[in-house]
Fold each of these.
Amino acid sequence: MHAVLPPGTAASFAKPACAVNVYGIISENVCESIGHWRGLLYWRLREDLNKTMIGIKRLAQQLNLSIGTVSRALNNRPDVSEATRRRVQDVARQLGYVPNQSGRSLRRGQTGVVAFMMQTGHNITGHGDTFIMGVFNGIQTALARHHLDLVALLCPSDEDAEGYLKRMVSRSFADGIILSSTQRVDRRIDFLAERGVPFVTLGRSQSDAGQPWIDTDFAGMAERSIDRLVRKGHRRIAITVPDDETNLGFVFTEAARAALAAHGLGLDPQLVFGFVPNEASGYDIADRLLALPDRPSAIVLLNPSLTTGLYRRLGEAGVEPGGDIAVIGRDSPQSPFLSPRLTYFREDLDSLGVALGKALLASMPRYAKAYPAGIIRQVWPTELIEGESDAFTLKR
């Protein structure tokens, strides 16, 4: 792939106000516009290229050689004598000169960048912040071994994800792509496979191009939750799933239905609550749950952002989690501060990120030899942390 600077950008492009640095991935507010990220990438590449030229100019002045001769000596070109090459490289070391990787990548047709495509929008909070940032750290750890850097492709929630990805791929500023929020049928997978772009998906899909993927064990979460709640006497168990075509919702629902059937129970469609990943959605779910003539005695929350809103609405109605209704959720920074203490599933996000990075690297020809395991397809384990929110046994 080739690094192409965004069309219409000028040499006077100013450093974006949100920039931390493109290699640190993301700004404090997670920039909402891809235009801002394009500008940030361009600014960093331009800055690095300028630094390299200044370094070469200084070397050339110190050595009384042309910039071209210094550049060829630094790159071990055969048209430079051995004596000149050694002299240039010795002085470069003395001055602390380090060849710039951004400039080299542009010349070689490789960017040295991996892109993580994620969705943004005013309805997406909480889980996206904690989960994605935890995974990012691990991905960077894996990429750093090969001097690769990570950038985020922020796709607005109201934009077609496939069209957005096609536009980004046409600009060729990443050597590999990580897709998140995989859909039940995900045309992005077929598109990347057809274009020959190395990629890995965070999540499975019915669309299958033989690509590597790593997916949280949502089926295991459903089975363990249902078995645990049924043992405590619960028969009417509600579940929550994404209010869209995200594949994890289908995986979780199917597993919950099968787990209930194993106990001779059915999944009441009224007890399947769709959500968007934010606290307000948790509040709304509790409100709808309370309005049912035959309320569930337990609920499983698939997104950590839901818990705070759910607790708030239940509290307003005088319904106590862990006393009147059992609640099982997902880990979040708020989990330790909830009362009663939440029973929740957690996963090692840093290790998940490392595994995701390695899975992508194994699919990239330049790095595949370092990862002989080949194509990785893995269900990522979770751990159940027992709290007080489902501690009671239902009396029948």
Note: Residues 282 and 312 are 9 Å apart (CA to CA).
Amino acid sequence: MINRQNPLSSTNLPSSDPSPLPPATILVVDDNSNNIQMLVDLLEGAGYRVAIAKSGEAALNLLKQSHPDLILLDVMMPGGMDGFETCQMIKANDATKQIPIIFTTVVSETLDKVRGLESGAVDYITKPFQQAEVLARIKVHLELYRLHQTLEQRVAERTATLNNALEALKQAQVQLIHTEKMSSLGLLIAGIAHEINNPINFIYNNVAPAHNYTSNLLKLVDLYRQALPDPPEAIAQHMQAMDLEFVRKDLPNVLHSMYLGTERIQSLVLSLRSFSRLDQDGRTAADIHEGLDNTLLILRHRIQASSYESNLQVVKDYGDLPLIHCYPSQLNQVFMNVLSNSLDALEEFAASESRSPRANWTPTVWIKTAIQTGDRIQITIADNGSGVPETIKPKIFDAFFTTKPIGKGTGLGLSICHQIIVEKHGGQLHCRSTDGERTEFVIELPRDGWGDCL
């Protein structure tokens, strides 16, 4: 093989600078030295760089090192691979299949030309060569090749730009919906908590005085009974009708139940206010366990639902965590979404027939917190529902992706969770699942917080 000026070496490849364009490199593949010399003189005289291979095998070896802009390939090369076979192998290689190939041949039969074009060639030049024709055909196909490359590059650039714009639009939609949702939710929770808090405080603050007044009245009744052991018949009949002895015993219990009930409602109101955290817009030190417990309290009606056929268990394994610098209301939203998904999965599994192999199944949610190495904490929320199929696991954090029926899910919950944990807190959110058995969501957070927090 002859290689003049090593035109296919890396130092001679076309520059990325669009102006001026470097001279094109043409690989001449021919076993006839006279043909080679004539083409080299012609092409170099026209300003092209030329590489030479005297066989199909030599051409394929040269193409492993670098690529020309066009190939002039002789059809008939005795003693090895012919032009058709060489062309097919070049076109079968993804790295070289786009290079235009022009066959050179003394054969002008139509069937041979068709065979060459079907094998991947773009044109034919017959021998003996007509110099003007050779240069014209080469010029046309080089222009087409460069236009094709430019078009592919522009399509790739436009596609990447459109994909980036689409992703940015989706993220903006998610963020907008999340902001509106959190704002509406926060205002709703704050309004409900305020409306409940005032009357409950009134009741709560009056239970203790009512208990004292009742105790005094009962003592007064006892004193009257001691002073008047035989009351008039009308009083005696009324005492019997109202079952005075039962009232004396039950009335303190009634007041105590009222006291416990108002305490419970006050606790729920406090949990609602802590969950929304409307008064804390920025990053602050927060107790992760408090956020988890408040979320569980809000979801208590679902945890105690009768749709599970057996009592749902919540197993908490809390580690000794420090206060975490974070956005508390946003983390509470993450806990709410993940725990709600676990309860959804358990409800669906309880209603399905696929749980028959697990006859003694008890619906369970596990919540575990621990300190990890490298000043990070880990929160694991798991359930023994139906699990997440492997086919959809890579998509669960995508915006607007949902497996729930229309009207029961927007496909934003886990996407928003991923944004909050990864972008807002510099953490990680992973899903580990065994299809048909168990699902775990693992949240990792830095103790001091970073990302948008800083």
Note: The chain has eleven helices and twelve strands.
